[in-house]
Amino acid sequence: MARISLTVENGRIAALAPAGAVPGALRAGMAFPTFVELHTHLDKGHIWPRRRNPDGTFFGALDNVTLDREAHWSAADVAARMEFSLRCAYAHGTSAIRTHLDSIGKQIGISWPVFAELRETWAGRIELQAVALFSIEQVSDRAHVSEVTAAVRDHDGIMGGVTYMVPELDQNLDTLFRVAADNGLDLDFHVDETQDPTSRSLRHIAEAAQRHRFAGQVTVGHCCSLARQDEEEIKETIGKVAASGIAVVSLPMCNLYLQDRVSGRTPRSRGVTLLHELKAAGVKVAVSSDNTRDPFYAYGDLDALEVFREASRIAHFDHPFGDWPMAVTATPASVMGIDAGRLRVGGAADLVLFRARGWTELLSRPQSDRMVVRGGQSIDTALPDYEELDGVLGG
């Protein structure tokens, strides 16, 4: 962080000068670029009131989301909940979001067109990207892969998948890497969302990227089991990840909620991957919200500052803070391939302004009085009322 005087003219950043160089400053405070969320699930958002997770476990979440999707996820339902989530994120100061979309059966023809409509509606406010989400085992179904590929290609999306240690993992990874290369697509995987140290699909993905000499961007989320492996395995895996140019996004709040949950026992693991070690090896690392008020995470509001505040505590981003704020701004923007998440002369005056003057002030309060500036103008930061979802959720 640097002490500067920031000047805005005609909706753009006109100057970044040393602090005190420009007379008539409004006040001292902290200025962030708008936030960038690299890993979310907008299609699942806010279903908690009608489909909860009784035991708080990963498999409980998986089962209950499946039941809710099969019963309720019409175009109107998905659109209403995604729109609500985007309004929350926008009010908190986010300008770009990548969302995973459940891409299974009839849902492929429902959620992708809804996403395309919302991307157009929100253009200029929030830049949206989407990733196809399905099980790695489904890659063996050629018809499924063909249908998903068509949807991703038609909607300028990203190929994805949930990876875990199945016998056909390498074979199915090879299929996805070939499909992505043939269609000019990037890849974004859910990886090793478990405390089992024998879960090593991250290493298999890095080896596949090297094997195929993949030129696109590969992003991996979660990677929880990496923190449970021995030092030699960790060193070798991180080396392969770095050599492959893979980016890693951790979801600290959701992982903390789900991982190592056993009824009647205090969790022993934080469920967060090795961000410091990955970053030190030259890997691009980010943190993001993941799920919002659904069976995978009962809380959250797509507030990237909350993500950064909790990540700072959970993963020790402090002493010193260094450039860790880039994990919710410039780094995820770079992974997404967009011009966002940084302050530069001539760039759009898209800012999040805080009264806080330092780290402990910033991270000790929710900063609900923040000012969000887009194109040089402050926006309405009033959050939508949950009551608006009652008609959708049956409240």
TrEMBL record:
Residues 108-378 form the Amidohydrolase domain. Signal peptide: none annotated. It comes from the Bacteria. InterPro entries: Amidohydro_3, Metal-dep_hydrolase_composite, Metal_Hydrolase, Metallo-hydrolase_Enzymes. CDD domains: Bact_CD (cd01293). NCBIfam families: PRK07583.1. This is Amidohydrolase.
